[in-house]
Amino acid sequence: MKILVVEDEIEVQNMIQHYFELEKNIVEIASDFDNAFEKIHMYEYDCILLDITLPKGDGLDLIKYIKTTSPKTGIIIVSAKNSFDDKIDALNLGADDYLPKPFYMPELNARIKALIRRNHFGGIDLISLNEITINTEERRVTIGDTTINLTTKEYNLLIYFIANKNRVLQKNALIEHLWGDNADQFDNYDLIYSHVKNLRKKMLAVNCTDYIQSVYGIGYTFKTE
């Protein structure tokens, strides 16, 4: 899962980043409106944690932009401004949830997971696609009756493929999803080739349908039709 934290309080930034990186997520930070706008414009995120009060701008304006450009991106407002009007304004603009500070990290984690399930998989913990079953709580992937062992990158890649099944995904989009800000450090696609190859090999080894197809010169598609 790829998360953007739009927050100017360093302690809160560090707390959220540390917690969710331990959960094997990619976490990026934006400390003001301009930095957040740039990241949202350049990259895609599964969930954005957004403080309404930001240096250089209003978080409510970011909600408008996100919902226009990336309507499937989940937005959770995390703000000390706990007035009724702020909450209503944020939700009316398209925010999915509102969690006032201070908050417990396990509660935030549960809300993010629920939001991702709702936006991408109809709100269920078990994702089923033909012979593939994924328990998102346990991060367990089963093909038929066989559980396969995937690395974190392979698991995230499979979830991303299924969430975008039958769409052509460019190689740079896969890199950005798996490595976030560090994507700019890659000058070739060797790691993507390697992770896709290993994921496909593990799935085929247990007689899974060959869903992962290369699209010459562009990237890959998870073909189910």
Write up what this structure looks like.
With 225 residues, the protein is an alpha/beta fold. The chain folds into two domains: 2-121, Response regulator (Rossmann fold); 126-222, Orthogonal Bundle (Arc Repressor Mutant, subunit A). It contains eight helices and 14 strands. It has helices spanning 10-22, 33-42, 59-69, 84-93, 105-121, 152-163, 171-179, 190-204; strands spanning 2-6, 26-30, 47-50, 53-54, 57-58, 74-79, 97-100, 126-129, 132-135, 140-143, 146-148, 168-170, 212-215, 219-222. The strands form four sheets. It has a five-stranded parallel sheet, with helices on both faces. The protein has a four-stranded antiparallel sheet with strand order 8-9-10-11, with no helix packed on it. It has a three-stranded antiparallel sheet with strand order 12-14-13. A hairpin with a 4-residue loop joins strand 9 (132-135) and strand 10 (140-143). The model has no long low-confidence stretch (mean pLDDT 87).
CATH superfamily caption of the largest domain: Response regulator
Major sheet: size, sense and barrel closure?
5 strands, parallel
Distance between the termini: 26 Å
CATH topology of the largest domain: Rossmann fold
Give the percentage of residues in beta strands. 15-25%
Query: Could you name the CATH class of the largest domain?
Result: Alpha Beta
Mean pLDDT: 87
Share of helical residues: 40-55%
Give the total of beta strands: 14
Radius of gyration from the alpha-carbon trace, in angstroms = 18 Å
Structural class: alpha/beta
What is the number of domains? 2
Shape: globular
Which segments are poorly predicted (pLDDT under 50) over 5 or more consecutive residues?
none
> What is the helix tally?
8
Main-sheet strand order equals 2-1-3-6-7
Write the H/E string, N to C.
EHEHEEEHEHEHEEEEHEHHEE
| Architecture per CATH nomenclature, i.e. the level-2 architecture of the largest domain | 3-Layer(aba) Sandwich
